């Protein structure tokens, strides 16, 4: 994999991530239009479909916004609960605090909070949506088993996620995927309920309602798959970007490459089960390993293969 330089990679990844993020609302509104088209195809003209679609836009946008605000405000508590992370004080580990503080001073950044997960695995992640909530979380294993240069490189990687607003970007993408996941579950239950009602004598009205729910369910599943692909693509791009930023910040790309090799040996944080949270880690412990379906697994991967990341770092 040919490396073209830090600034070129930063520009390329930012541009592609922006395009992918723009696609989320386009998918929402596009599938809404298709719902009206399929449900009214036999009885209405395109103008009527467009009229219903335009009338529905405020309701769709309002529902998405409400869901977004709830998920946005609750994400910090959700992540803390899912990981079992606890604050790490300066007195408990001056080494970690000095590494974080020195890197932040070198970049003019406000120092984030530092949390620890009491687990022997090697992993780390950044979280938060603003300066008050930005946090770097490290496992006990990664603190104890990496040397200073390696740990500094890992911390720099996570600080780059904060500096580049990657965490905020990923939270937005996760929320949009969550919308379609919720809709799919609701519509699936409604479809089965509608089928039961129809079988008990609901008549033509019940069958029509069941058909509408089935169409909506199919479109919601399509939306979930498409937005999931967007989300995973965004996540992969940001990992390359954070690797490049960490190499630039520390001037030691070999240290991050060495750290990633060690992390790859034991990244599985046993206390964390939620897949939407594990994608925040420097290495996703829930990612599928290579097999005959590796191409399709790659499309749904939140992180690039760690071997490729190491290969790029070795070319600095």
Question: What attributes characterize this protein structure?
Answer:
single chain, 316 residues, mainly alpha, four-stranded mixed sheet, 10 helices, 71% helix, elongated
Strand content: 5-15%
Report on the biggest sheet. Answer: 4 strands, mixed
Instruction: Give the overall form.
Output: elongated
Structural class: mainly alpha
Low-confidence stretches: none
Overall number of domains: 1
Average of per-residue pLDDT values: 80
Q: What is Rg?
A: 23 Å
**Portion of residues within helices:** over 70%
Number of helices: 10
Describe the structure.
With 316 residues, the protein is mainly alpha-helical. The protein has one domain. Helices cover 71% and strands 5% of the residues. It has ten helices and four strands. The chain has helices spanning 6-39, 46-83, 94-107, 140-145, 148-163, 166-250, 253-265, 275-278, 294-299, 306-313, and strands at residues 86-87, 113-117, 124-127, 135-139. A four-stranded mixed sheet has the order 1-2-4-3, with helices on both faces. Helix 1 crosses helix 2 (46-83), helix 3 (94-107) packs across helix 5 and helix 6 crosses helix 7 (253-265). The chain is elongated. The model has no long low-confidence stretch (mean pLDDT 80).
């Amino acid at each position: 994999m040919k490396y073209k330089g830090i600034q070129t990679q930063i520009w390329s990844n930012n541009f592609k991530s922006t395009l992918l993020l723009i696609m989320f609302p386009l998918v929402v509104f596009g599938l809404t239009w298709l719902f009206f088209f399929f449900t009214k195809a036999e009885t209405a003209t395109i103008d009527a479909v467009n009229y219903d679609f335009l009338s529905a836009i405020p309701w769709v946008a309002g529902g998405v916004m409400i869901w977004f605000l709830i998920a946005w405000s609750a994400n910090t508590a959700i992540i803390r609960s899912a990981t079992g992370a606890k604050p790490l004080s300066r007195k408990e580990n001056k080494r970690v605090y000095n590494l974080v503080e020195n890197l932040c001073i070198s970049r003019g950044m406000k120092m984030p909070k530092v949390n620890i997960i009491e687990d022997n695995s090697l992993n780390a992640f950044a979280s938060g949506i603003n300066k008050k909530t930005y946090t770097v979380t490290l496992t006990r294993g990664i603190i104890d088993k990496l040397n200073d240069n390696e740990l500094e490189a890992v911390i720099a990687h996570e600080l780059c996620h904060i500096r580049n607003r990657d965490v905020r970007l990923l939270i937005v993408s996760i929320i949009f995927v969550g919308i379609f996941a919720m809709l799919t579950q609701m519509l699936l239950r409604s479809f089965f309920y509608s089928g039961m009602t129809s079988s008990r004598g609901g008549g033509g009205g019940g069958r029509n309602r069941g058909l509408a729910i089935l169409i909506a369910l199919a479109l919601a599943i399509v939306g979930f798959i498409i937005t999931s692909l967007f989300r995973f693509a965004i996540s992969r791009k940001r990992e390359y970007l954070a690797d490049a930023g960490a190499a630039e910040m520390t001037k030691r790309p070999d240290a991050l490459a060495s750290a990633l090799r060690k992390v790859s040996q034991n990244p599985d944080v046993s206390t964390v089960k939620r897949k939407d949270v594990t994608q925040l880690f420097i290495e996703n412990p829930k990612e599928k390993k290579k097999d005959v379906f590796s191409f399709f697994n790659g499309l749904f991967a939140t992180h690039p293969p760690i071997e490729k990341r190491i290969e790029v770092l070795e070319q600095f």
